[in-house]
Amino acid sequence: MKTIAIIPARAGSKGIPNKNIRLVNEKPLIYYAINNALCCEMIDEVIVSTNSKEVQIIAEQMGAKVHWRNEQLCGDEITLDGVIYDATTSSSAVDTDIVITMQPTSPTLRKATLESALTYFKESTFDTLISCVNKPHLAWRQDDLGNKYPDYQKRLNRQYLPPYYLETGAFLITRKECVTPESRLGQNIEVFEISDDESIDIDTYSDLKTAEHVLSNQRVAFYVNGNTKRGLGHIYRCLELADEFYVSPDIYYDINQTTREIFGESTHNFIGVNGIGELFQTLSNKKYDVFINDVLNTTIDYMIALKACNPAKKIINFEDDGEGVLKADLVINALYQNPTVPQMKAGEDFYICGKTFLFYDPIEIKNDVKNVFISFGGADPQNYTDRVLEIIKSPEYQGYNFIVVIGRAKENVEALLKYTDIDNIEVLYDVRNMPQLMSKCDIAITSRGRTGYELALLGIPTLAMAQNTREEKHGFVSQENGFNYLGLNPNNSVIKANLDLYLSLEQSERQRIHKKLLEHDLRNGRKRVLGLINSL
Predict the structure, then answer these.
(1) How far apart are CA 438 and CA 435, in angstroms?
(2) Does one domain contain both 63 and 167?
(3) Domain total for the chain?
(4) For residue range 311-331, what is the model confidence (pLDDT) as tens digits?
């Protein structure tokens, strides 16, 4: 059965001038329909019907035939039926069995979808098969008198509405005998459902932008781990960054180091692997444009193996102080102050704050300290929470209110929650309203990771301690930037003495610290990081 594809592409589009030859993702719009048709082995001939010299050049250079359209068939009021019929009268199309109309305004159709539709049509007795997208919505109609009435029987959430198929311009497959100057439809008609992404039909400039996005769509993957020893900063950053891509990223994690529960209630696509061997095996069957590591230090061997099994166009490492940075395209180390390789960006300018913090202003410095915020991250391997709770349960602190937040990787949670029985202590687990809780407080105690940046963003005078030798390298949470840094694992007497000091600080001194903390722009790191990733 001889099958031809006819692509109608006249000049003179008024809504979008030169629409068919506009560059979309660096190629003319009409390129995509021609390329799909030429690459489909089930199509014997590709004909472009046009009155445009530019379209003619593009079509012939790509290997398609051109049928020069009569000017009488180029008006705005002319339907496609007559145009397609006219093209079938050319000498090469006379003995055709199947005619496919493919509009250049549907650039996102995939070749595999076109082939599936053709196979379905050839194995059926249908006269006509039309590409459609299922778009169930609560819709309304209007009668001849202008009265509006609902086009549904029952108001339901969209996913429960019956199918509602809208035609797209991707393809209309029909038998040759059904093609006339007035119609291309036979008696026996079926629809072929295609995806939302493939259903784009270019009518507006917004459609052009959407098509550009779909055609340049990046495949993104993360490899991230977090636990009681490593902390959860990597997990939190991964989830924040994953939301910034206009695609659904794959998020890999090692089941020997990280549990699915660590990611909380997020609905991203999480994929557990049994060690890096299984990770590499899985990646060898997938191709990503962007691959992001957030696993602390990487090695040269890991990075070489990663590139060998999945040569992503961009490999970005976060918080990496290992030799693997030499093989990364970009390294973001917000917790360190000095870059060690040219492709590394270091310092607080590249800190990604939680989205909800952007809706909170810095705190107001009050006359006296009344409320104290305490949190040592998601894991707290030094058990600072336990030690501080033992200090503040003393009656001498009854005049102050303490809000203590523990993360979902913390051990002995149940024992710590019992401190809530003390009137002036509130212990909270795995909260979602961190900036709200912080904003209620006058001073804070934390470790030297992500939480320190959050407190600085709100201008809260803070005592800080390092959880491990790695955190000792985190330069932002320091005296120089307005923190009272106590070092790694200070004894309880040092913690208590500094807590007492901060509880008694004069308003003017806290105001000075507040001003110092706010000297840093911690709200725009997200924009800077994404700009770097997109510029690679």
Answers:
(1) 5
(2) yes
(3) 3
(4) 888 999 999 989 999 999 999
Q: Rounded to an integer, what distance in angstroms lies between the CA atom of residue 398 and that of residue 289?
A: 56
Asked which of 10-14, 66-70, 169-173, 286-290 is least confident by mean pLDDT, the reply is 10-14
The total of other beta-carbon atoms located within 10 Å of residue 113's CB is 19
Asked if 194 and 248 sit in the same domain, the reply is: no
CATH number, residue 404 = 3.40.50.2000
Give the model confidence (pLDDT) of 343-352 as tens digits.
999 999 999 9
pLDDT at 212: 94
Tokens of 271: 């994929």
Asked if 428 and 413 sit in the same domain, the reply is yes
Q: Give ∠ CA 513-514-520 in degrees, rounded to 5.
A: 100
The rounded distance, in Å, linking the Cα atoms of 451 and 366 is 22
* Whether residue 210 is found in the same domain as residue 241: no
Structure tokens at 484: 């009272």
Round to whole Å and give the CA distance between 434 and 360: 11
Residue type, 528: R
Does pLDDT of 385 surpass 80? yes
Range of the domain at 60: 3-215
For β-strands 23-24 and 27-28, DSSP reports them as antiparallel
In a domain, 330, yes or no: yes
The Cα–Cα gap between 397 and 374 comes to 14
Residue pair 128/175 in contact by the 8 Å Cβ criterion: yes
53 contact partners, CB below 8 Å, separation of at least 6: none
How many whole angstroms separate alpha carbon 251 and alpha carbon 279?
11
Find the length of the chain: 536
Tens digit of pLDDT for each residue in 473-509? 899 999 999 999 999 999 999 999 999 999 999 999 9
Q: Is 185 helix (H, G, I), strand (E, B) or coil?
A: coil
> For residue 336, what are the contacts with CB-CB under 8 A and spacing of at least 6?
321, 346, 347, 473, 474, 475
Q: What is the CA radius of gyration of the chain?
A: 31
CA 120, chain centre distance (Å): 34
Residue 355 is assigned to a structural domain of this protein: no
Coil, helix or strand at residue 29: helix
d(CA 155, CA 140): 12
Confidence of residue 91 (pLDDT cuts 50, 70, 90): low
Strands 148-150 and 140-142: antiparallel
